[in-house]
Amino acid sequence: MKFFIDTASLHDIKEAHALGVLDGVTTNPSLMAKEGITGKANILKHYVDICNIIEGDVSAEVISIDLEGMIKEGEELAALHPQIVVKLPMIANGIKACKYFSDKGIKTNVTLVFSSGQALLAAKAGATYVSPFLGRLDDISTDGMHLISEIREIYDNYRFETQILSASIRNTIHVINCAKIGSDVMTGPLSSILGLLKHPLTDIGLAQFLADYKKGN
């Protein structure tokens, strides 16, 4: 399973990259604003800065909801760097734009997916990634993992090449469960990746090893 980090923080991206396990980045205007990055020129530059840190795909989101605007924005984003993936919303115009870009060999990520039917449409349109929002479904007492499992079954049935990018990851349990049911990618905060390092028995064992070493020296 690929590990993406969902952030606009260059610090967090560098931290995840330093672990040697980071495969890509997803971000959006809200995450950019959280880092104090505003204005079109600054946002576009920031996408390039992210691409210069990592080797993998970087999802950059369009703002427009009309087809013409999506295509214009998407082409501008794709031209920034070969690693850019154009992030499109799961609406009719988003699917049309996805087909347009996929026909041109431009990578896409269809986001805000909450049903297997939506994921099926995205795959039919040639999406590189589809982003079901796992955590947001859990927030409304719906089993987000069941959705990932349904999409996996459908994609395997018809050998769709679209990758399942499990988004809105909140914790390490989400990461493990996504890996168990065959999600191609997970994207979440740095904490969801670092959390995989932690286990109390590891801490206890290391402390004991170090204590025993000190006794013998």
What report would you give on this structure?
The protein has helices at 10-18, 29-34, 40-51, 67-78, 92-103, 116-124, 134-139, 144-158, 172-181, 190-194, 200-215; strands spanning 2-6, 24-26, 57-61, 84-89, 108-113, 129-132, 163-166, 185-188. With 217 residues, the protein is of the alpha/beta class. It has an 8-stranded parallel beta barrel, surrounded by 7 helices. Helix 4 packs across helix 5 and helix 8 (144-158) runs parallel beside helix 9 (172-181). The radius of gyration is 19 Å and the shape is globular. The model has no long low-confidence stretch (mean pLDDT 95).
Secondary-structure map:
Elements: E1 2-6, H1 10-18, E2 24-26, H2 29-34, H3 40-51, E3 57-61, H4 67-78, E4 84-89, H5 92-103, E5 108-113, H6 116-124, E6 129-132, H7 134-139, H8 144-158, E7 163-166, H9 172-181, E8 185-188, H10 190-194, H11 200-215
Parallel strand pairs: 1-2, 1-8, 2-3, 3-4, 4-5, 5-6, 6-7, 7-8
Helix pairs in contact: 4-5, 6-8, 8-9
Total of helices:
11
Number of strands: 8
Rg (C-alpha, Å): 19 Å
User: Please, what is the average pLDDT?
Assistant: 95
- In helices, the fraction of residues equals 40-55%
Instruction: State which percent range the strand residues make up.
Output: 15-25%
Low-confidence stretches: none
* Molecular shape: globular
- Largest sheet data: 8 strands, parallel, barrel
Cα distance spanning the termini: 43 Å
Q: What structural class should be given to the helix and strand makeup?
A: alpha/beta
* Helix-strand topology string: EHEHHEHEHEHEHHEHEHH
Strand order of the largest sheet: 1-2-3-4-5-6-7-8
